[in-house]
Amino acid sequence: MDFELKTLSLAAAAGEKCDALILLVGESFKPGKDALSRLAAEAIKARDLEPKPGKLLQAYRAPGIAAARVVLAGAGDGSGKRVHAAVQAAVGALRSNSVKRLVICLAPEAQADAVRAAVTATAESSYVYVATKSKPEGRELQRVTVAVADAGRHAQAFAAARAAAEGIEFARELGNLPPNVATPTRLGEEARKLAKRHGFQCEVMGPREIAKHKMGSFLAVAKGSEQEPRFIVLRHQGAAASEPPVVLVGKGITFDSGGISIKPSQDMDEMKFDMGGAASVLGTFRALGEVKPALNVIGVIPSCENMPDGRSVKPGDIVTSMSGQTIEVLNTDAEGRLILCDALTYAERFKPAAVVDIATLTGACVIALGGVRSGMFASDDELAADLLAAGDAALDPCWRMPLDDEYGEGLKSNFADAANVAGRAGGSITAAKFLQRFAGNYPWAHLDIAGTAWKGGPAKGSTGRPVGLLVQFLLGRQGTAPAKTAAKRAPAKTAARARGKASR
Ligand code: BES
Ligand code: MN
Ligand code: ZN
Predict the structure, then answer these.
(1) Catalytic-residue membership of 337
(2) Stretch 80-103: mean pLDDT
(3) E strand or H helix at 55, and its extent?
(4) Domains of the chain by start residue, with CATH
(5) Does pLDDT of 19 surpass 60?
(6) Contact 298/355 with Cβ under 8 angstroms?
(7) Gap between the Cα atoms of 478 and 486, Å rounded
(8) Is 17 labeled as catalytic in the residue annotation?
(9) What pLDDT shows up at residue 499?
(10) Atom of ligand 1 nearest to the CA of 430
(11) Catalytic: which of 263, 292, 455, 489?
(12) Sign of the CA dihedral with 389 first, then 392, 396, and 399 last
């Protein structure tokens, strides 16, 4: 889908040739003398339209307006959140019409967050999965014009939002693919394709190279599957080689049956989404490829299936991780942490400014936070604050959870350095405490996206979260300027903090 940002008055927008036009009407709406203003003002006066978000009024062939369909959409206070809800509702209402060309008119006082929300909400609500349908009925929408009072002022926010939308969509598409298609091998191929298209460096390791790196914990999970594991490393080098990178580590379990500690069959199909962390790293790189920020970012993806087999790792088995720490596998369904721990050790070699891992890690996180906020754990307060702020700004929010050492006590093992599970209490926290044992040498954060990466029920499907958060977080580290025009590098404070902080 093509997005463009254009300076248009409401009078000019009324003359735009398109299939549909969405006019956002906020509480501070001041009608002019043009046809669109008249329509909205009359509707408000007649109490047929309220400026509340979610409220809609549709008109057909309204006088003086070139678009056949007009949707007036209440946008409340005009904030990003309200604009997102309004555009979502309006694009949803237009879904059954064949709208190829759409114009969205924002209020003259619209801020960057409103522009961002208009773009991401449009992309989100018009997405249609077709990859494995035999008679694909795809997305109708082809071109979307976001009309603002001053396009120049919003050009940067718009470009970032368009890139984020592409990344989110890429992650959604990968997440939605069935597990017999989105295999570890396929994820490796997707990473290679991204690298080729955008000029990233890319390395995809198979079982032999993984074994050479002594990733015994990752390989223990992988060995119950017919599918070969992949360990993917993607690099965006937008800054000097001396600049320490941010490393994103994504859990890439392409199907989680639970292994020998097998899961109940109810909803087991949803465990195809267990590569949501990996998909979000690839989606973030998709966005980085568009914006090319002046930053160094490395993506690390351990990917395999978790399956029951005669060769599978068993409860009671003890494995040796790349760090040298031994792990007693008490539950083979706690496999995410077993593959991530080796990836976190591997990440040390990059002397990172920060490492953020992203994983559909625990059902307990779904119980704690539901589907609204991702769980966020961090060994570094400033990293935590940055992630929290980025999530709120991108409307892809997270919530900080605790890491007190007492939570790690249940991971003690009589036979190894640690067990891979503790009791049921605080399950998302004990999982994070397990990971923290391997993330000691850099500022580290962990996003548990078990509740946010996909939706179940009738609207079953991947959300593409937390690509929005990650893109916002990364672009925030280099100011907001794209690489070409960026005069300044990452703020001194960021670099100093990255090097100076102890992490545990
Ligand atoms: N991929 C699951 C986590 C999950 C479960 C996400 C349900 C979303 C919905 C993970 O590998 C897992 O199975 N975790 C176990 C850990 C337990 C055995 C300590 C869980 O949460 O039940
Ligand atoms: Mn599992
Ligand atoms: Zn899993």
Answers:
(1) yes
(2) 95
(3) none
(4) 2-149 (3.40.220.10), 171-476 (3.40.630.10)
(5) yes
(6) no
(7) 8
(8) no
(9) 40
(10) 19
(11) 263
(12) positive
